[in-house]
Amino acid sequence: MADHAHNLRATFTGASSSSKVKPIGVITRGTTGVNRLRRFDRWCFHHPHVRELATDVAPLALDVGYGASHTTTVEWGRWLHRLNPDMRVIGLEINPERVLPPQSGVSFELGGFELAGYQPQLVRAFNVLRQYDVDQVEAAWSTVTSRLAPGGLFFEGTCDEIGRRCTWITLDADGPRELTLAWHPWGITTPSDVAERLPKILIHRNVPGEKIHRLLSAADTAWKHAAGWEPYGPRVRWEKARAILIDEGWPIRASRRRTSDCLLTIPWSVVSP
């Protein structure tokens, strides 16, 4: 049977930011797995703005569309509680049958992109919009970002089934700020392999003439030029390839800490459709 899950559509117009009556969104497949979002969790934990938001009075983080299992929401909660034990972490699901009792310091409620009337500092929605029509993405973004607390961030992305390849867009009240690509060092042959898990708004844009295709092609070329570092492992090879990209003028935000993941974070304007 053909899989039409990527054609889901929701109604985003006319919803009140304070409404707790009707969640905005469509029930998705809801599949997940243990540590599936670990690459995002680690990155999020070390993000300077996230750390700043965690010091707000009564900080709140929402995980929208956590799916049929609470696993990834609880895992994110553990990371966030290391930043601030008093941070509230809530998983929102549009399917009432998936709403669970509180556990492991995390609570669960009925809700969708309207954020159940909350005004959080942090919002995450992974592997949700990839199941929607692409022309619904920006409406979903606006619905969430209009409800953020001052200075709040929204992370929208996708990953493969076991979390080896993961990508996400960081947004604030003004819209998308940057794109991050993250992958297991031994999980790819070339950096462009991560393209299969690009966010919905970009995944069909990886064709010649588009910005994202230009970036991934440049990354593959830099990876090839860094082949001499392969004996030191793919993590070191990617560090050298990323340095080549920076030397070529790509405005990549390089982490000052040594990470177990391969990361590429770049301003949204560089890759926007």
UniProtKB/TrEMBL annotation:
Protein name, please? Methylase
Q: What is the lineage of its organism?
A: Bacteria, Bacillati, Actinomycetota, Actinomycetes, Mycobacteriales
Naturally occurring in which organism (per UniProt): Corynebacterium deserti GIMN1.010
SUPFAM superfamilies from the UniProt entry: S-adenosyl-L-methionine-dependent methyltransferases (SSF53335)
